[in-house]
Design goal:
Largest sheet: 6 strands, parallel
Shape: globular
Oligomer: single chain
Structural class: alpha/beta
Order of helices and strands: EHEHEHEHHEEEEHHHHHHHHHH
Number of helices: 15
Number of strands: 8
Mean pLDDT: 94
CATH superfamily of the largest domain: Dehydroquinate synthase-like - alpha domain
Distance between the termini: 52 Å
Radius of gyration: 20 Å
Low-confidence stretches: none
Helix content: 40-55%
Strand content: 5-15%
Strand order of the largest sheet: 1-8-5-4-2-3
């Protein structure tokens, strides 16, 4: 019996087994431009040498619609019958988007903008993350940019058929990528736990992810070993499974403009407001909650998050988050990037309202400006 996910050292060996089971005429391989050649190909070259494949890597870190359309054109130019993606969140998002849109006949823009609905499933897709961050291998949505605006595609047909999470693929990551991807995973787990869409299942995944990441991220960045890299791989995957149910909330909603307009890496951008939003949410009152389960439920949830962070209250939890960021070499305030007051207002005006609505406490534009000015 084939399992849908394979987690742990040595799990990359399952790629050859899956390819031999499906016996594809041609594999559509989606990878990063440099990272694959520099860090990853040695683990896959022997397996892929036994199969015909086309490699697509012509896209930016945050895939744009034009990137996706080039991928669709390449995929449809030959008879590809399975998709393998190997890389970080952007690589996996690009592959998921290309795969599903190549199987649907209207213009890509119509699907991304929501004008048309996805009707057809793409080819069998095997997702292999090389960072412990986005959890994209465990979600049914993907991110595409049109201009500087971020759009989310969401459909059950986007979900990968298989995921292979082998920490060996993260061993050559630069420290800064390990740091920002790890903070993305931690943010996803914390946001998932307090999301208005959380369930018992999503909270179980999120709780396990928070504990794994908090105990291991500093070590994975500064003193990497087999144990902390495995913890991070598991934690990021669990965080992905959590947000697949609950979706992300305010820190993600605020982050996208920081990335698209000012080039702050996604995981770092999200983490910059995580502590402030945690404190804000903990201050919930009876007249400003957005979670239908009520303010007392939200307060209980925030208290539990503080416990997972080994903190006595929300202020201590914020300090814990900021201390972790500092310990792995990340700035903790937007002001440290030299971003002006005018630019901060621009970020506040570009918030993703779809994600903001998932936050358990209402947030105003002035609240957002306050977070960004801290």
């Amino acid at each position: 019996m084939i399992k849908n996910e394979f987690v742990g050292y040595g799990s990359i060996s399952n790629l050859e087994r899956l390819l031999r089971i499906y016996h594809p005429k041609r594999v559509f391989l989606v990878t990063g431009r440099k990272s694959y050649n520099e860090h990853i190909s040695e683990y896959l070259s022997d397996v892929l040498s036994n199969f015909n494949f086309s490699r697509f890597c012509d896209f930016e870190t945050n895939p744009k619609l034009s990137d996706i359309e080039r991928g669709i054109q390449m995929m449809n130019s030959r008879e590809h019958d399975i998709v393998v993606c190997v890389g970080g969140g952007s690589v996996i998002d690009a592959a998921k988007t290309i795969n599903v849109l190549a199987a649907n006949k209207r213009s890509s823009k119509d699907y991304v903008s929501g004008k048309s609905k996805i009707q057809n499933k793409g080819k069998t897709l095997i997702a292999i993350p090389t960072t412990s961050g986005s959890g994209s291998e465990a979600t049914s949505f993907s991110v595409v940019y049109m201009g500087k605006k971020k759009y989310s595609l969401e459909h059950k047909f986007i979900f990968p058929d298989y995921s292979i999470i082998d920490p060996v693929l993260t061993e050559k990551l630069p420290k800064d990528i390990t740091a920002v991807s790890g903070m993305d995973a931690l943010s996803q787990a914390i946001e998932s736990y307090w999301s208005v869409n959380s369930t018992n299942e999503s909270k179980k995944y999120a709780r396990e992810a928070i504990k794994l990441i908090v105990r291991s991220l500093n070590g994975a960045v500064n003193h990497p070993n087999l144990e902390n890299r495995l913890d991070m791989a598991k934690g990021a995957h669990l965080a992905g499974k959590a947000i697949n149910i609950s979706k992300t909330t305010a820190p993600h909603a605020i982050s996208y403009a920081m990335t698209s307009h000012f080039g702050i890496p996604h995981g770092h951008a999200v983490a910059l407001t995580l502590g402030d939003v945690l404190v804000h949410n903990a201050g919930i009152a009876h007249d400003d909650y957005a979670d239908k389960r009520g303010s007392n439920y939200v307060k209980k949830t925030l208290n539990e998050i503080c416990t997972f962070l080994d903190s006595k209250d929300e202020s201590a939890a914020k300090r814990k988050i900021n201390a972790l960021m500092s310990s792995i070499g990340l700035k903790t305030r937007l002001s440290q990037f030299g971003i002006s007051t005018r630019a901060i207002r621009k970020i506040a005006n570009k918030v993703n309202n779809q994600r903001l609505k998932n936050n358990p406490r209402l947030i105003t534009k002035q609240d957002i400006i306050g977070f960004l000015n801290h």
